[in-house]
């Protein structure tokens, strides 16, 4: 099998899969076929009436002429509602199908593991949700209808023109098979180029999204020129791919035009000859020319339909690539919280992000008991944040076990585990919504009084009440209308509202200035009371009051103890603490 044949097989498999997915709406597709069949029959009826009316006029048979005129009127009366019904069926089928595709794609993406989302640019997923689905939309709303109606009209027209004159039919369309073959061969590169073009557009979207998200950093380091060049390079590549598609279509266009004109030129010449020699009536010639439109048009549409078909399969394949990614598991149980068992336990956990990489954790073991506050420290890059990702089930250990309240993580449902955990991180994300809604996300059925009480405990209530719209204030994308401390307090309020027994703090104050950090730290200490807390802190001075400190290095826990125990010994913790103290002093201009 040649590469082109393999590509065609794959394309038809993609279309088959697409049609199987949207089969709940097949009743509308069937209605499209039925109405198209009726309209094809009406086209033949109109041609028959045209032939009869012209011949009756030339022979002065007024009775016959009236009969054919009534036939045309009857055809028009039927054609109008049938045409309306086909248009409605097409719209209903396409919109319902697109709705299902969008819903399924969005839902599937929401259930993908974090490991997939961290490895794939968000702009790529957005491109599949927008650009690729837009291509499917064009196919379902336009090309699919033509793929149904044009062949039916073509078959009916060919049968009738053969009845009128088989000689004229053969003369008129003798070159069509060759032109069809040429068209198909010339259009073969379109699918490959379109898929490449869509991937390039996806890259453009990713770069644009990253540029906007990192605009503050870009301006701070005067990187506007660098980012603009990077974006322009991506746009140039996308343009190059688009031009390749345009070149193929430019070659196909004159072929299409010639295919459209050639049969008519032959028909006028040879049909006129047959009529002059009384081998055909003039009505037959004109009816033939009228029907020839329905023979030639489907053929001349082949380049565009094939182009649309190949573009659609390329887009559908990119969407199916997302659908084929395995989702997070949805099995498991929800266990009751056993406060006599360790809240979190790592049992000989080995882990690496990629199979071929060195292990980040090498038989990592530790336990955190209910109600205990434990700090996790270590050199940069030792995997502290990864520990939190494993606890929340974002990644699975390569070997070993993680237990939550005495039960293996693999036995828990992921949703059940995450319901027990609140996370406050340095990269606080606020949804482009009101402050009220951003806090309310912590608890699905929270009352207004509960939300305001959470804000009060987080020390943000008074600030919110002084805003013009109070809790209805829109925070904007990423909460850019608020300071870092204010965003962090809203995140803390969200965690307070959730009231989960386990609290994970991932450098929750590292992005704040010293004064803001002090006040946020007070809120966090109130939040930690009565909860099992695992704290990763940028400034080691903030974890002095932890019940225990675990020191990580080279994938293992190398030290454990309180602040005083570790600081007063020749420990890695003491080295890290003194080094950071020196850096803080230098930053404050003391050293």
UniProtKB/TrEMBL annotation:
One of its GO terms (cellular component) is plasma membrane. The chain crosses the membrane at residues 26-48, 68-89, 154-182, 257-276, 282-302. Gene3D superfamilies: ABC transporter type 1, transmembrane domain, P-loop containing nucleotide triphosphate hydrolases. InterPro entries: AAA+_ATPase (IPR003593), ABC1_TM_dom (IPR011527), ABC1_TM_sf (IPR036640), ABC_transporter-like_ATP-bd (IPR003439), ABC_transporter-like_CS (IPR017871), P-loop_NTPase (IPR027417), Type_1_exporter (IPR039421). It is a multi-pass membrane protein. Its main location: membrane. SMART domains: AAA. Residues 344-579 form the ABC transporter domain. Pfam families: ABC_membrane, ABC_tran. It is found in: Cell membrane. The keyword Membrane applies. Residues 30-311 form the ABC transmembrane type-1 domain. Signal peptide: none annotated. Keywords: ATP-binding, Membrane, Nucleotide-binding, Transmembrane, Transmembrane helix. One of its GO terms (molecular function) is ATP hydrolysis activity. PANTHER family: ATP-BINDING CASSETTE SUB-FAMILY B MEMBER 10, MITOCHONDRIAL, ATP-DEPENDENT PERMEASE MDL1, MITOCHONDRIAL. This is ATP-binding cassette, subfamily B. It comes from Caldanaerobius fijiensis DSM 17918.
């Amino acid at each position: 099998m040649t590469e082109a044949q393999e590509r065609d097989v794959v394309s038809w498999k993609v279309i088959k899969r697409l049609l199987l997915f949207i089969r709940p709406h097949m009743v509308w597709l069937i209605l499209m076929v039925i109405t198209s069949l009726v309209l094809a029959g009406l086209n033949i009826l109109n041609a028959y009436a045209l032939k009869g009316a012209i011949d009756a006029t030339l022979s002065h048979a007024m009775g016959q002429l009236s009969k054919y005129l009534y036939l045309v009127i009857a055809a028009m009366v039927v054609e109008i509602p049938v045409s309306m019904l086909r248009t409605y069926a097409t719209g209903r089928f396409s919109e319902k199908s697109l709705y299902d595709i969008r819903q399924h794609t969005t839902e599937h993406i929401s259930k993908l593991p974090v490991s997939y989302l961290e490895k794939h640019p968000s702009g790529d997923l957005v491109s599949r949700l927008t650009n690729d689905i837009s291509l499917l939309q064009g196919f379902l709303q336009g090309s699919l209808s033509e793929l149904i109606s044009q062949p039916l009209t073509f078959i009916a027209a060919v049968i009738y023109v053969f009845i009128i004159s088989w000689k004229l039919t053969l003369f008129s369309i003798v070159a069509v098979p060759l032109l069809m073959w040429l068209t198909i061969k010339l259009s073969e590169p379109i699918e490959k180029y379109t898929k490449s073009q869509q991937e390039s557009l996806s890259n453009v979207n990713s770069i644009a999204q990253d540029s906007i998200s990192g605009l503050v950093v870009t301006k701070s380091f005067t990187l506007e020129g660098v980012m603009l060049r990077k974006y322009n390079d991506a746009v140039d590549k996308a343009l190059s791919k688009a031009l390749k598609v345009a070149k193929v279509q430019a070659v196909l266009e004159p072929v299409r035009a010639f295919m459209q004109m050639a049969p008519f030129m032959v028909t006028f010449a040879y049909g006129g000859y047959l009529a002059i020699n009384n081998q055909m009536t003039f009505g037959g010639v004109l009816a033939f020319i009228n029907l020839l439109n329905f023979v030639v048009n489907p053929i001349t549409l082949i380049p565009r339909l094939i182009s649309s078909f190949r573009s659609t399969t390329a887009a559908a394949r990119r969407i199916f690539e997302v659908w084929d990614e395995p989702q997070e598991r949805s099995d498991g149980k929800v266990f009751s919280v056993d406060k006599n068992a360790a809240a979190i336990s790592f049992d000989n956990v080995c882990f690496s992000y990629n199979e071929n990489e060195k292990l980040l954790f090498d038989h990592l073991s530790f336990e955190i008991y209910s109600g205990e506050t434990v700090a996790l420290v270590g050199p940069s890059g030792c995997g502290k944040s990864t520990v939190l990702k494993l606890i929340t089930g974002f990644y699975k250990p390569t070997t070993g076990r993680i237990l939550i309240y005495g039960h293996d993580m693999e036995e828990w449902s992921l949703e059940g585990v995450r319901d027990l955990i609140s996370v406050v991180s340095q990269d606080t994300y606020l949804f482009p919504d009101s402050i009220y809604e951003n806090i309310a996300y912590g608890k699905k059925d929270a009352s207004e009084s509960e939300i305001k009480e959470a804000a009060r405990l987080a020390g943000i209530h008074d600030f919110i009440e002084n805003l013009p719209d109070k809790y209805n204030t829109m925070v904007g994308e990423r909460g850019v209308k608020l300071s870092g401390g204010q965003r962090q307090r809203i995140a803390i309020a969200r965690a307070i509202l959730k009231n989960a027994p386990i609290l994970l703090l991932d450098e929750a104050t590292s992005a704040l200035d010293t004064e803001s950090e002090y006040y946020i730290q007070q809120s966090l200490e109130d939040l930690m009371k009565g909860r099992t807390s695992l704290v990763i802190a940028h400034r080691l001075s903030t974890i002095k009051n932890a019940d225990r400190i675990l020191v990580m290095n080279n994938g293992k826990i190398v030290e454990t103890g309180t602040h005083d125990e570790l600081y007063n010994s020749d420990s890695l913790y003491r080295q890290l603490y003194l080094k950071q103290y020196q850096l803080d002093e230098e930053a404050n201009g003391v050293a």
